[in-house]
């Protein structure tokens, strides 16, 4: 009896371990993309804005990708400006952009929001 239970236990524990590993991999993957919600033909990226940071502050997009940038103001009115590309998202709004130029582009808050306002920056990497 014991001879058959032990190998089954080992197989069971191994299967459970593999299952947990796969789950954690899936979770890690989805967590890095926590702000991306796929829908329609544009990929939606929600950026939380609060004094004095953007979360996330590094955004990766693919060249030619259509993105719906949405700003979620947590404490005050903030905005997103990508001067090099001529893109702007105003407080409590969303805009769609096609990123058709490869490179790294700085973005800033363009609503004055206090003493640390100028520190509210981030980058969009188009690859
Ligand atoms: Cu701001």
What are the salient characteristics of this protein?
five-stranded mixed β-sheet; binds copper (II) ion; elongated; three-stranded mixed β-sheet; 10 strands; alpha+beta
Give an overview of the whole structure.
With 127 residues, the protein is of the alpha+beta class. 24% of the residues lie in helices and 42% in strands. β1 (36-39) and β2 (42-50) form a beta hairpin. The relative contact order is 0.18. It starts with a helix and ends with a strand. The chain has two domains: 1-32; 35-126, Immunoglobulin-like (Sandwich), CATH 2.60.40. It is elongated. The strands form three sheets. Strands 1, 2, 3, 5 and 8 form a five-stranded mixed sheet that branches. Strands 4-10-9 form a three-stranded mixed sheet, with no helix packed on it. Strands 6-7 form a two-stranded antiparallel sheet. Bound molecules: copper (II) ion.
How many beta-strand segments? 10
Q: Separation of termini?
A: 59 Å
Assign the CATH topology of the largest domain: Immunoglobulin-like
Q: Under the CATH scheme, which class of the largest domain?
A: Mainly Beta
Write the layout of secondary structure elements.
Layout: H1 2-32, E1 36-39, E2 42-50, E3 53-55, E4 58-61, E5 65-73, E6 80-82, E7 87-89, E8 94-99, E9 103-108, E10 121-126
Parallel strand pairs: 2-5, 4-10
Antiparallel strand pairs: 1-2, 2-3, 5-8, 6-7, 9-10
Bound molecules: copper (II) ion.
Provide a concise account of the structure shown:
The chain contains one helix and ten strands; from the N terminus they run αββββββββββ. Strands 1, 2, 3, 5 and 8 form a five-stranded mixed beta sheet that branches. Strands 4-10-9 form a three-stranded mixed beta sheet, with no helix packed on it. β2 and β3 form a beta hairpin.
């Amino acid at each position: 009896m014991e001879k058959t239970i032990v190998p089954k236990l080992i197989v069971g524990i191994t299967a459970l371990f593999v299952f947990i590993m796969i789950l954690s991999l899936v979770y890690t993957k989805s967590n890095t993309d926590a702000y991306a919600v796929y829908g329609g033909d544009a990929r939606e990226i929600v950026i939380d804005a609060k004094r004095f940071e953007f979360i996330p502050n590094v955004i990766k997009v693919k060249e030619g990708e259509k993105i719906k940038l949405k700003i979620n103001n947590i404490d005050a009115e903030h905005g997103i400006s990508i001067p090099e590309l001529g893109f702007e998202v105003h407080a409590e709004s969303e805009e769609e952009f096609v990123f058709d130029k490869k490179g790294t582009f700085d973005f800033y808050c363009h609503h004055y929001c206090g003493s640390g306002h100028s520190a509210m920056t981030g980058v969009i990497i188009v690859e």
